[in-house]
């Protein structure tokens, strides 16, 4: 391949699995992982790794030049629940890192950028069911405001300077290899750990809080697919709606009970319930399907089976 790939935020929940996948596709030495802290052994040992604060523009530029990087995946971000506790820090991380990468692309240092957006761009005034690609967007969380602003800037850099930036609005991502940190959708991962350890889980969202979710393998597939798509097929340069599964804590608990019959769920909603209530219940992703062939593989049953097996193995 011409030029290397850099993942910023490689040790996070999505970054870890994305790095491993990209190393499998492009070769270990062609994919440079970076993060503010060290991460999983498998990631640290399988290819180049650099400690990088995503807001440090000159260090970022130095790494890009040293490794002759041509493609950047900017996965570093402060998620919804944590961002509510540190709004200014979240804004600084989520926006500064994006501007650094977009400006490096504008200056010709890199050719292609992936930047994840989120269902958090939507707000309480957005239609909740089958939320359309283009609709009312009045996010009420710091994280959502930063993602919506980021989308506007991505589209601006594409229109004004021809920056090849591609983005998807991730729903809650469910996985067992690396734990998420600070999201509203994290309950859907915690529940598996507690179900297997204690046969009981207390959810911080209410029983009927329906949210769009997706198993990690589908999220990685979508990310790789949109980046590999011919440029003319990527017609939306703000960010694509993406959907797979939608469920409530109650529906998820019922599915888990099919495998662990004494499993019990309790509900103690906290501040994250309000965030969940402001987000869509399900998403219309027909643009992603039409433009670059998006098609998820995991439904609720398959996701639950895979999670119980995966988390079960990590607990052994
Ligand atoms: C969060 O809950 O903050 C994230 C997201 C939906 O972007 N998982």
TrEMBL record:
<feature type="domain" description="NAD-dependent epimerase/dehydratase">
    <location>
        <begin position="5"/>
        <end position="242"/>
    </location>
</feature>
<dbReference type="InterPro" id="IPR051225">
    <property type="entry name" value="NAD(P)_epim/dehydratase"/>
</dbReference>
<dbReference type="GO" id="GO:0006567">
    <property type="term" value="P:L-threonine catabolic process"/>
</dbReference>
<dbReference type="Pfam" id="PF01370">
    <property type="entry name" value="Epimerase"/>
</dbReference>
<dbReference type="InterPro" id="IPR036291">
    <property type="entry name" value="NAD(P)-bd_dom_sf"/>
</dbReference>
<comment type="similarity">
    <text>Belongs to the NAD(P)-dependent epimerase/dehydratase family.</text>
</comment>
<dbReference type="InterPro" id="IPR001509">
    <property type="entry name" value="Epimerase_deHydtase"/>
</dbReference>
<protein>
    <submittedName>
        <fullName>NAD-dependent epimerase/dehydratase family protein</fullName>
    </submittedName>
</protein>
<dbReference type="GO" id="GO:0008743">
    <property type="term" value="F:L-threonine 3-dehydrogenase activity"/>
</dbReference>
């Amino acid at each position: 391949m011409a030029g290397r790939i850099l993942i910023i935020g490689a040790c996070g929940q999505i970054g870890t699995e994305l790095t491993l996948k990209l190393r499998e596709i492009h070769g270990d030495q062609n994919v440079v992982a970076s993060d503010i802290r060290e991460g999983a052994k498998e990631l640290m040992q399988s290819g180049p790794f650099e400690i990088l604060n995503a807001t440090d523009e000159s260090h970022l530029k130095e790494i890009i030049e040293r490794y002759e990087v041509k493609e950047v995946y900017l996965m570093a971000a402060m998620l919804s629940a944590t961002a509510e506790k540190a709004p200014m820090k979240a804004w600084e991380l989520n926006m500064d890192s994006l501007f650094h990468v977009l400006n490096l692309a504008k200056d010709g240092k890199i050719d292609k950028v992936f930047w994840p957006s989120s269902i958090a761009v939507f707000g309480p005034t957005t239609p909740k069911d089958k939320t359309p690609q283009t609709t009312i967007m009045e996010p009420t969380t710091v994280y959502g405001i930063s993602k919506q602003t980021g989308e506007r800037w991505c589209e601006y850099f594409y229109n004004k300077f021809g920056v090849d930036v591609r983005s998807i609005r991730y729903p809650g991502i469910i996985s067992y290899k690396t734990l998420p940190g600070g999201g509203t959708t994290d309950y859907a991962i915690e529940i598996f750990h507690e179900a297997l350890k204690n046969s009981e889980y207390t959810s911080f969202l209410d029983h009927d809080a329906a949210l769009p979710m997706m198993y990690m393998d589908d999220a990685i597939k979508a990310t790789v697919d949109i980046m590999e798509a011919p440029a003319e097929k990527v017609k939306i340069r703000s960010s694509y709606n993406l959907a797979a599964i939608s469920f409530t804590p109650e529906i998820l608990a019922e599915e888990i009970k099919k495998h662990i019959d004494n499993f019990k769920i309790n509900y103690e909603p906290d501040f994250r319930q309000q965030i969940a209530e402001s987000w869509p219940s399900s998403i219309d992703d027909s643009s992603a399907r039409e433009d670059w062939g998006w098609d998820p593989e995991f439904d609720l049953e398959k996701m639950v089976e895979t999670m119980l097996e995966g988390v079960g193995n990590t607990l052994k």
